[in-house]
Amino acid sequence: MSHKLQVGEMEASYLTDKEIWGHFNYIFSSKSRNSTTYKFVLIKSLIENLYNANEKLELHYDSLFNSFSKIYWNLVIHHDLNQINMVGKKAEVQSILLNVQSKHKIPNTFVFDKLSNELQIFIVNKVKKKCKVNVMGAIYGDTSGTIFDFDNEQEVLRFNPAFFSFMQRYQRVLKYMSNYQLAIFLEKFNEQGDTSRLLLKVENVSKRSSLDPFYQVLASFYGGKCFYCGKTIKKKEQAHVDHFIPWSFVQADQLWNLVIACTACNLSKNDKLATDVFLETLIDRNGNFLTMPELKIREDMMVYTSKKLKDLYEYSIDNGYTDIWVPRKKLAGD
Q1: Alpha carbon of 323 to those of 52, 140, 270: distances in Å?
Q2: Which of 46, 183, 240, 261 has its CB surrounded by the most CB atoms within 10 Å?
Q3: Would you kindly state where each structural domain of the chain is located, as residue ranges?
Q4: What is the rounded CA–CA span in Å between residue 173 and residue 246?
């Protein structure tokens, strides 16, 4: 009954890639007990939070279950998808969200990001409380106690270094696997569309509806110029918040990975990785951010290191982001 565990201690610190693939293959196979979508959503949430882990590879439940709650809200409320393999029943997290929606009379059109901060925190705490009992131990058991340590009282997990490195190196493949398996599960127990349409919904459930809050922070520091080409941006509508490491890879919004770009650079860069000249520029900028008291206390900046950004850049190349982007040269009069 590993899913009922309150504390799980890591059974092995070193594993080969072959052994780790074996664990993930088991999680995604019919041998693993997957009566709900919990495990698939937890894997997605772990991937999204790899870079929220601190130097000890510790990840706090608030970060993890913020992602978990957001994914579930967008699947259950926004897309009206059932999350359990029993007719006429609902997964416990699904019921929590539906009750919140009913109580507050929230329309289905509302994605998680559009909820008030207070309501988001309330939902995360309710989901976290439920998942501490049924979810953390399940993944732990499926990996024979090797993926992480966890402590439900302290509300923290610690990644196994071997798993952490593996998940960074194979992040894109693991993301595709979890998305696909989640879509397959949903197709079996929902009447809405086929796998390809469900997969499109699954792939986008984590996407933030607006980056305006980050723009408000960045606007004070970017000097009115595009981070990439240096062109003066005269109107706010022409200033875009860009994920330096593409969102499609990191699938998280962190201040240290965000810059302001002009329209031309933002559209041209799209889903590409910028040349490493800009990596050094961004590291310098983030170093300046860490000298500012109002920024260094932000949760995303507290887990930032220049090594983390450099590693993320290299891992994105390892994961197939090899079409390196360079901005066009600034023309006279720009």
Answers
A1: 26, 37, 11
A2: 261
A3: 2-203, 212-325
A4: 16
Which two structure tokens, joined as six digits, stand for 58? 């510790």
Residue 220: how many CB atoms within 10 A of its CB?
10
Distances (CA, A) of 220 to 58, 232, 236, 281, 283: 32, 14, 12, 17, 18
The model's pLDDT over 178-191, given as tens digits with 9 standing for 90+, comes to 999 999 888 888 88
3-state DSSP assignment of residue 270: coil
Nearest to 301 by CA among 242, 265, 264, 256: 256
pLDDT at residue 332, as a whole number: 44
Region 117-139: mean pLDDT is 93
> Could you count the other beta carbons within 10 Å of the beta carbon of residue 131?
24
pTM over 0.90: no
Beta-carbon contacts of 28 under 8 Å, excluding residues fewer than 6 positions away, are 177, 178, 181
SS3 12: coil
